Amino acid sequence: MFPKQCCRKCALFCGITISFIVLGILIITFRAAIYKCIISKIFVLQADSYTFDMWKTNPLPMTLKLFLFNWTNPGEVLNSSVKPHFQQMGPYTFDETKEKVNITWNDNNTVSFYHLKRWWFNQSKSNGSLNDAITSINPTSLSSSYGARNWSYFLKNGLSIFLSSIAPSLHVTHTAGQVLFEGYEDSLMNMANRMPTFIVGSSLPNFDKFGWFYTRNNSETYEGHFNMDVGLTGQLGKLYSWKFMQHTPYFRDKCGDISGSAGEFFPANLNKESLVNFFSPDLCRYMQLEYEKEVDVNGVLGYKYVAGDRLLDNGTKVPDNKCFCNDDCMPYGVLDVSACRYGTPAFVSLPHFFKADPYYGSIIDGMAPREDLHDFYMIFEPKTGMPLKVAARIQVNLLLQPVDGIRLFQNVPKVYIPVLWFEQIVTIPSEFTIFVSLLKNFESICIAAGIVCILCAVVLEAFCCSRACNKPILSREHALKEIVPLTEKTGFEA
Questions:
Q1: What pTM, to 2 d.p., does this model score?
Q2: Looking at 401-481, which runs of residues are DSSP E strands?
């Protein structure tokens, strides 16, 4: 090889190595900007984005587990020496699909939509049948007496006579299917639909049947209208209005604010002092979860946020929560949602009164609270704010209490009767955790890639120039000596 050829080849290698060095420096220098650009593409909701497809139709298989409480000794309710006893039934498992419908893109960088949910009973994953007989408190007569508790004696006496003729029993027995989705006919509800509210004592909805999830399956409008941020200002998923309201009429002051996440997207850069805030249409209020600990989900480090004082307290530990009390504030662990449930004395808690004041479990039998089975929590990758695992669990309870002037409820005990609780657990699949890990460690990966580029450039330069220029140049005699054997083999002359 001649020196001129050596210089040309060496110049080529130098150009390549310089390119590698520049590329490495650019990757390291602008890693934050590159990350921000990628995040802006992923965490901005647009009609043609990959994020939109995942948001519009839930990409993960979902199941809803429902547990019912069977009241085993309702005939002893007036016996003060016998506690009401409840037997947990289920789970009754339903496969679920969820999608956004009637999607409207607004000029103010928000999107409006409704939820469409569908459920199918999955017998193979259930413990029991939808034909199981379930005995519980009569919710319609209970609602009527609760709504009339502050009436005058004469009005309550009239309601008492009415209830004794239409709904003379405190308890009812129906199948699990009827209690949940199918619904059952109720004489008091039928009568209430034809009478003014002040006669029956409650603003019950105009349904032809009663069931805790009746009319909800396959309904686009049940959960209401939502309006949320699309993320152009960095607040993807922030809820601005629900049912066209920015403040609900169900709770006073700031407790009635529509705030927090709409439920799918959450803020990035979470820390151990952060509160995870999201809105629940079932409770008609925002919910706040608090940091508990670090956990591992499919190899990704996550922060676990749980139901704590900010959610479960009624003003004793967190004074700001006092406005969630619409009447008398209850002991810790039970939340009043009666205003949200048509005036029905509905109160929610964690299943089996987990984390609640011991008072609730002491006046009934059958509760067995356990952290691994009954806690409400969410686990997030803190840098991106992406949910890694969600375990949503809520119990519905009805308040039974004495009401003077109404004979059916004259001498009953005051007790929070557990009716049902639900569980929905969703864990991010392992293939998604790879994507989350890449996002989480993106800047570190950029630094490593940049360093590798620079090192490769140095090694390439040293190796290639050494091979190109340090190889000895052969004389004509030596060259002919190497060529002659070749011509003898091929038959060609040199």
A1: 0.84
A2: 415-427
DSSP SS3 for 357: coil
Q: Would you say residue 57 has pLDDT above 80?
A: yes
Give the torsion sign (CA, 289, 291, 292, 296): positive
Provide, for the chain, the percentages of residues in helix, strand and coil under a 3-state DSSP scheme, each rounded to the nearest 5. Answer: 35, 30, 35
Nearest to 263 by CA among 238, 297, 289: 238
pLDDT one-digit tens code per residue, 62-88? 999 999 999 999 999 999 999 999 999
Give the number of residues written for the chain: 494
* 139, containing H or E segment: helix 139-147
* Dist CA 347 CA 350 (whole Å): 10
Phi, psi torsion values for 21, nearest 5 degrees: -65, -45
DSSP codes, 73-97: -GGGTT-TTS--BEEEEEEEEEEEE
Report CA-CA distances (Å) from 230 to 47, 172, 264.
10, 47, 12
Contacts 24+ apart (CB under 8 A), 248-253: 248/284, 248/285, 248/340, 249/339, 250/284, 250/285, 250/326, 250/337, 250/339, 250/340, 251/284, 251/285, 251/323, 251/324, 251/326, 251/339, 252/323, 252/326, 253/323
